[in-house]
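Case study.
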Amino acid sequence: MRAEAIIFDVDGTLAETEEIHRLAFNETFTHFGLDWYWNRPLYRQLLDITGGKERIRAFVANHRAPDGPRALEQVAEMHAAKTEIYTQLVAEGAARLRPGVLRLITEAKDKGVRLAIATTTSLPNVEALLQAAFGMPSSSIFEVIGAGDIVAAKKPAPDIYRHVLDELRMPTFACIAIEDSRNGLDSARAAGLPTLVTPSIYTSHQSFPGALAVVPDLDTPPVSLDTIAKWRAADAGW
Ligand SMILES: [Mg+2]
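After joint prediction, the assembly is written out as follows.
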């Protein structure tokens, strides 16, 4: 059957945003007088923790970070500053949509397929990205945006997908999720959603058991509503 709603993850799925997040974190650390620097291999590890505040706390707990206790007292302020830096970078055009994203979204809108977002990133980050990438407010494209701290348990818990499904008032079998990471896949699958995975630069080393399909991006091969319907017909699980 054809999907009646598509629920997108944001970071790594709509755009390769993680490198911009990393730069924003590092700039924030300097701003707060912390001698911390997250290089790419370290950030790849830290991405196992979803949510920016949670990631900072995990770094302090697991990496003997200098000034850790002081930083922990300022996590909320640091995260707010990081969000400001990130949204500024994105507004300046630092993030571009990944291949095929705009085409699939355009096809979905033309055919009346509903669109939603399920992400652990903060709402201002999502809105900045969507405004910059699509040139219009996010609400004119996505009917439901589940973001940030709206649920207590972040991915890989299924809560954010359940929240979005409730808001859409849609059954899982009528929807599909698109994700780039194992945490995201596990979250969507735990909510009962068939999930297409387009691995990103920071998740290409991961494995994706239970995915409906794994493709390099939405243009390789060109993924349309028909393609998704064929994958679902071929997968007895759905
Ligand atoms: Mg992601």
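Observations recorded in class. Residues 9, 11-13, 180-181, 184 surround magnesium ion (CB under 6 Å). The first strand starts at residue 5 and ends at 8. We will return to this complex in the next lecture.
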